[in-house]
UniProtKB/TrEMBL annotation:
The keyword Disulfide bond does not apply. This is Dopamine beta-monooxygenase. It is found in: Membrane. It comes from Solanum bulbocastanum. Residues 1-27 form the signal peptide. Keywords: Electron transport, Membrane, Signal, Transmembrane, Transmembrane helix, Transport. GO terms for cellular component: membrane. The chain crosses the membrane at residues 219-240, 247-272, 284-303, 324-342, 348-368. It holds the Pfam family Cytochrom_B561. Residues 61-176 form the DOMON domain. The lineage of its organism: Eukaryota, Viridiplantae, Streptophyta, Embryophyta, Tracheophyta. The keyword DNA damage does not apply. Its main location: membrane.
């Protein structure tokens, strides 16, 4: 009986918890529906007041994001939140970080005048947040800020070359007014990843950062594949030919490096489609290295016999295509760390790896040339006619 009583008590507690959680969710949904039902056309001019196919989504605290995206990739955004003093901002980031992001910031000064500016974040200090700068593709429709009761509305319109999908968004506010259009330090902020296709979002600071983890994996695969296995595979081929198993070491290292590099490229393409971040130099060089690596794989299957008259041409082709691929791979790894804002650990680690490979090559190349100099020169001998 005691066991049955405990089971019944646990069951009732579970029901009460579920009902309480459902009540909270329904309460949040009802509040969101009430806020989204506000008719913007009563106080905002077109196109902000008459958004077609408008999506309304709560994103953080009292922040509410309304947006509409046309077939021409024109995105009209209206951000609203509770307001007393200070400023409210919405930023578009490349990687979820403040640095190198472009933001739209609005406020209503004590005289009741609405102000909205674009800012570019060059650093984390207020002096590094530059007004009237940024990379947001604003249209000719003027952005505006409007205070309706206790709610402030920031409205602006963007025109992208491609459809806007997943985008890291920065949200922040401060209770102190900007000073001569220079922003004061924010009181609170957050970063979300917002999907403009579905209207879904998640708080990047509150749950695992999937795209940041993928970006790190992309970098690790590139460094291991193009920066470690492929260079050592080339070293085996050039300097260890006097060893019996050099060919198997060379092929194994090159094959592993190619697979890791290919996986890094595939993950990079997924990140490109996910974040809609365009880095032409890094992407172009990465594709070039992949193409050169594929040519090297094809060369493995098309290798002529040692006695073939084409073997010398094949050796030149195989050797120089490999060198060019490794050279551009090293450049692309450095570019990738630069664009990703990699920390000092990444830079020091790859610098140590690259320096070690170069030092090994210099030492082995020197020994190889000294060995060639020490080899005796065999002069042709001619038989002497006996007298």
């Amino acid at each position: 009986m005691a066991m049955i009583s405990r089971l019944l008590m646990s069951f009732f507690i579970m029901l009460i918890s579920l009902a309480w959680h459902k009540g909270l969710v329904m309460g949040v949904d009802e509040d969101a529906k009430a806020l989204c039902s506000v008719n913007l056309a009563q106080f905002l001019p077109p196109p902000y007041g008459g958004l077609e196919n408008m999506v309304c989504q709560p994103v953080w605290n009292s922040f509410l994001l309304r947006y509409s995206q046309t077939k021409d990739n024109v995105v009209t955004i209206v951000l609203s939140t509770v307001y007393t003093t200070g400023w409210v901002g919405m930023g578009f980031s490349r990687d979820g970080k403040m640095i190198n992001s472009s933001c739209m910031v609005g406020w209503v000064n004590p005289e009741g005048q609405g102000k909205i500016r674009q800012y570019y974040v060059e650093g984390l200090t207020p002096s590094k947040i530059k007004p009237e700068k940024g990379e947001l593709p604003l249209t000719n429709v003027p952005p505006l800020v409007y205070l309706q009761g206790a709610t402030i509305y920031l409205a602006f319109q963007l025109k992208y070359p491609n459809r806007l999908k997943n985008q890291p968004i920065l949200l922040a506010f401060a209770t102190k007014y900007p000073h001569h259009h220079h922003l004061t330090v924010h009181d609170d902020k957050t970063t979300i990843l917002f999907d403009f296709s579905s209207g879904n979002s998640f708080d990047v600071s509150a749950r695992p950062n999937d795209y940041t983890s993928s970006r790190k994996t992309h970098g690790v695969l590139g460094i291991l594949g193009w920066g470690l296995f492929c260079p050592f595979g080339a070293i085996f081929a050039r300097y260890l030919k006097n060893q019996k198993s050099w060919y198997y070491f060379h092929v194994s290292a090159q094959f592993i490096g190619f697979i890791l590099g290919l996986a890094g490229v595939v993950l990079g393409l997924q990140l490109h489609n996910k974040l809609q971040v365009h880095i032409p130099a890094h992407e172009g060089i990465g594709i070039l290295v992949l193409v050169l690596s594929i040519l090297q794989v094809l060369a493995f299957f098309l290798r002529p016999d040692r006695d073939s008259k084409y073997r010398k041409c094949w050796n030149l082709y195989h050797g120089w295509v490999g060198r060019i691929a490794l050279f551009f791979a090293a450049i692309n790894i450095v570019l990738g760390m630069h664009y990703a804002g990699a920390g000092e650990g990444w830079k020091i680690g790859y610098g140590f790896l690259l320096g070690t490979i170069m030092l090994v090559c210099i030492v082995l190349e020197t020994l190889l040339r000294l060995k060639k100099l020490d080899e005796p020169t065999h002069l042709p001998t001619y038989p002497m006619n006996s007298i």
